[in-house]
Design brief:
binds pyridoxal-5'-phosphate; alpha/beta; Aspartate Aminotransferase, domain 2; 14 strands
Length: about 450
């Protein structure tokens, strides 16, 4: 054997410490601690305490055999991705540190980052679907996700069946039976069960445990259950613990948390990630190094920010609940339905900070309320440090037909609010004066 081949067997020293420290005094460290250093060794970057931003399109191999070995990882001849860095469409140091840290929050073996939440979701679905296949999904989904399934995947012979978020085991069994028959008729398989919980903007929760039980009973185990956890993750819901196989995020929201970047991710066992990574390698769509670096900064405070936002939301909702101009609230802290409460108790550790408020009246009253807000900003999106308010029926869900909107409970008097980390009494004062203007 030549020296070159021997060298290739020893992976190049990388950003990672040789033996990453994840326990202290026999105690597993918590994610909030690991966010400050996991997966990065300053000694490999001139002692820089924080990871530098690696702006490069390509990486030098230490020898030709190492280059070959790394390409075996890229092309999938060696599972689990490349051991070395090759080219920035495939990976980079900032993205790898980010992926290692994202995986920690969900208790996942592996994670992949993307240039947006929608890139993550589209590549995930494309990686698992072939012509004739059926996707089973909960409803409502984020409008662009629903559109990708109904309008884009349909062009390639993929069909779908959806079910309402709160469906019980019997209903789920029936939906999967129907999907199986549809797939057989089309010469395909049920390729994926895709969930979003809570749904936007109704906050209806999906029973992931029941979905898993139904999948195990009715379908092959190679049909993954994926779930968009953007609204409650990573702090208030860990769907992999409830039986989901793949969790996906718009990191633009709570994880990024400052309304200053767009990114996405998927996480799960390596076997589920490998096809997704392979397609990302082909198509591109990985987050850029600067965005990955910003997300590393965001992850250091994600628990702090989400906790504060959650506490603020509870106080604001307590105020709104008793207000005469408020007809009702869609807030996970005040669930009225017994079945939804049962799902919440089994799946969630917090009610989040994004909710719906139903104002007495209709569009005109909502617009007066929105135009009168002084602290809260009038914008779509959620999960940032600042409080945002919007009117789904005339904004995010404007393109949804009226009948479908009614079915989903997206009424003209619904205002969507994402609470930030401001002083809670200032927020309550703002909502009080805006309601006075209605
Ligand atoms: C925002 C959002 C997305 C899309 O994410 P982008 O980062 O905007 O591409 C997907 N799902 C949910 C639930 C979202 O809120």
């Amino acid at each position: 054997m030549t020296d070159a081949v021997d060298a290739a067997e020893t992976p190049t020293p990388r950003r990672k410490p040789k033996a990453p420290v994840t326990t202290i005094n026999g105690r597993e460290m918590k994610p909030s601690t690991l966010m400050m250093g996991y997966g990065y060794d300053p000694a490999l970057s001139e002692g820089s305490l924080k990871a530098p931003i690696f702006l490069t399109s390509t990486f030098a191999f230490e020898n030709a055999a190492a280059g070959k070995r790394h390409f075996e990882g890229i092309t999938g001849q060696r599972p689990g991705g490349a051991e070395g860095l090759v080219y920035s469409r495939f990976n980079g140091p900032n993205q790898e540190i980010l992926e290692d840290r994202l995986a920690i929050w969900d208790g996942a073996e592996d994670a992949l980052c993307f240039s947006s939440g929608m890139t993550a979701i589209c590549i995930l679905m494309l990686a698992y679907c072939s012509a004739g296949d059926v996707i089973v999904h909960s409803g409502p989904l984020y409008a662009a996700s629903e559109g990708f399934v109904a309008k884009v995947l349909s062009k390639f012979g993929v069909t779908y069946i959806d079910f309402p978020a709160g469906a019980n085991r019997e209903e789920l069994d029936a939906v999967l039976e129907k999907a199986k028959a549809q797939a057989e008729a089309n010469g395909g398989k049920v390729a994926m069960i895709y969930l979003e919980s809570p749904g936007n903007p109704t906050n209806a929760l999906v029973d992931v445990e029941a979905v898993k039980a139904a999948r195990d009973a009715k379908l092959d185990m190679d049909c993954p259950i994926a779930i968009d956890n953007t609204f409650l993750g990573p702090l208030w819901q860990r769907p992999l613990d409830n039986g989901a196989d793949i969790v996906c995020y718009s990191l633009t929201k709570y994880v990024g948390g400052h309304s200053d970047l767009v990114a996405g991710s998927v996480a799960g066992a390596k076997k589920w990630m490998d096809p997704v990574r392979a397609l990302r390698n082909t198509m591109g769509g990985i987050a850029d190094p600067n965005t990955a670096w910003m997300l590393l900064r965001s992850l250091e405070t994600v628990e702090l920010r989400m906790q504060r936002a959650g506490e603020n939301a509870e106080k604001v909702c307590e105020f709104l609940r008793g207000h005469p101009k408020v007809e009702g609230l869609g807030y996970l802290g005040f669930i009225k339905d017994e079945r939804q409460q049962d799902i919440y108790d089994r799946h969630c550790t917090g009610a989040g900070s994004t909710f719906s408020v139903f104002i007495q009246g209709g569009e005109a009253e909502c617009f007066r309320f929105l135009d009168a807000l002084k602290v809260a900003k009038l914008a779509v999106s959620l999960g940032g440090t600042e409080t945002l308010a919007s009117h789904p029926a005339s904004m995010t869900h404007l393109s949804v037909p009226h009948a479908r909107r009614d079915q989903l409970g997206i009424t003209d008097n619904l205002v969507r609010i994402s609470i930030g980390i401001e002083d809670p009494d200032d927020l309550i004062a703002d909502f009080a004066q805006a309601l006075d203007a209605v």
